[in-house]
Design goal:
- There is one protein chain.
- By secondary structure, this protein is an alpha+beta fold.
- Helix content is 31%, strand content 25%.
- The chain has four helices and six strands; from the N terminus they run αββββαββαα.
- Strands 1-2-3-4-6-5 form a six-stranded antiparallel β-sheet.
Amino acid sequence: MSTSRERIINIFKALPEVDLEVGGERERHLGASVRKRRLAWYLEDHHGNGDVVITCKAPDGVNTAMVDSDPDRYFIPSYTGPRGWVGMRLDVDDIDWDRVELCVRDAYRMTAPKSLARQLDTD
């Protein structure tokens, strides 16, 4: 298991009631959901492109701001980007894991019921 995958799993597991679903060709993808609502995808070699990324929901305008700030690190995902999602490359040098965790937690807050999302504020 790759180090990036292990770190992402740990970030997901720290969130209340997150379910993980393995999928994709060779079972290299990992979807994270809360109460059956998807908040993020971890993707390895999606469509054979060799990339290792995480995509997640983002607040309005945040996805484009992130891409504008560092297009080598962030991107608009082809399927979910038009709905506000952002992609973060995990196969680059110096991954900002604090930023990755913040983005996943923001996606969780946008997806989870308010009672669950409030639990993050007590951490």
